Amino acid sequence: SMMMKEVILFASLVVPSVAFSPAAFILQSQRPLLVRYSSAENDGFLSLELEKPLGMILEEVEEGAPKGVLVQEIGDSGSANQSEFRDQLVGLKIARIMGEDVTKVGFDSVMDKIIEAPSPLLIDFAMENANAESTDMENEAETSFEVGTEVTINILQQGKPQVALNAKVGDNLRQLMLDNGIEVYQGLKQKLGNCGGIGQCTFCAVDFVEGEGWCERSEYEDGKLRKNPNARLACLNNIQGPATIRL
């Protein structure tokens, strides 16, 4: 399992060349820690030269796939914890070990290369994941709307003219449509058999044509509406920004 791999990796990094025992662990832990670094911001990498034990817990980028590993956690001991970049390392993908690309190999192969490498070893971390995450957070912050902000929800219905509803961020989408006379439930089956807005029947599902400031739909909706990736359950969505939806 992934958890077992993490435990084995951490143990291997702490005692890479001696049998595991309390005495060996203390001996290894007492070795001087060497942390050298060079920041190569131009090519998107953070390069660190670290003495073993590293004290990093790694996980697969994608479970069971040869897509490399990323840093899940920095332990309390080890050279990584002594680095001034320790807070930045969590979440970064390991790109190269001793100059060799490890982004397209499996977990075990990365672990072997770390264990076999001399100490100190040079590790290049890809900064693109961190930069992308930061950019996503900035974009989300820029496009998010405060609760109570007035927005417009455009409703598209087959055979009917477009309707523009005035709404406020925080209002429930299903209730907004019902209050404005929009026929959310169409046909006798939906009118009599709907769940009343508790997310069970999927009859209030609407297609999102476009929207601004809306987060991705929930995993629950992914499961309920797996055949329509652009749909949402109106009853489970409070308005987050302006949108155009189709019934």
Molecular structure report:
Strands 1-2-7-5-6 form a five-stranded antiparallel beta sheet. Helix content is 30%, strand content 26%. Helix 1 runs parallel beside helix 5. The protein is elongated, with a radius of gyration of 26 Å. The protein has helices at 2-14, 22-29, 79-82, 86-89, 107-116, 128-143, 173-179, 188-193, 219-224, and strands at residues 35-40, 45-50, 56-60, 69-74, 93-97, 100-101, 121-126, 150-156, 163-168, 205-211, 231-233, 243-246. The protein is of the alpha+beta class.
Task: Report the radius of gyration as a whole number of Å.
Answer: 26 Å
Number of strands: 12
For the biggest sheet, the summary is: 5 strands, antiparallel
Low-pLDDT windows of residues: 1-42, 130-135
Percentage of helical residues? Answer: 25-40%
Name the overall outline: elongated
Number of helices: 9
Rounded mean pLDDT is 79
Q: How far apart are the first and last residues' alpha carbons, in Å?
A: 44 Å
Strand order, largest beta sheet: 1-2-7-5-6
Q: What is the strand content?
A: 25-35%
Structural class comes to alpha+beta
**Helix-strand string:** HHEEEEHHEEHEHEEHHEHEE
